Amino acid sequence: MCSTQPTLHARPPDRAKPRRNATFERIIAINVTCTQNVTDTLVNRIADGGRIILTSSIRARMVVAGFSAYVASKQANVGLMRA
Questions:
Q1: Using one digit for the tens of pLDDT, what is the confidence trace for 31-66?
Q2: Contact between 10 and 69 (Cβ < 8 Å)
Q3: In three state form, how does the secondary structure of the chain look?
Q4: Contact, 3 vs 52, CB < 8 A?
Q5: With contact defined as beta carbons under 8 Å apart, do 8 and 23 qualify?
Q6: What's the angle, vertex CA 57, arms to CA 80 and CA 25, rounded to 5?
Q7: The model's pTM
């Protein structure tokens, strides 16, 4: 199984609007919770010798200001992969 998240759900904050937790929570739900749910479902069903491949983003290593939720979600995927 190969899990990728090609959609970028992040953008620099609009300084005129207060930060909202809804955007952060949505990014974490899409990029972390969904990945964990799929992985947990498959780990006991995958055939011997099968593989689960998780991809992250260069943003897990190269942090950019204004993208904290996206960066955190991609670093979390690295942690899930290593655990």
A1: 999 999 999 998 888 888 888 888 888 888 888 888
A2: yes
A3: CEECCCCCCCCCCCCCCCCCHHHHHHHHHHHHHHHHHHHHHHHCCCCCCCCCEECCCHHHCCCCCCCHHHHHHHHHHHHHHHC
A4: yes
A5: no
A6: 65
A7: 0.69
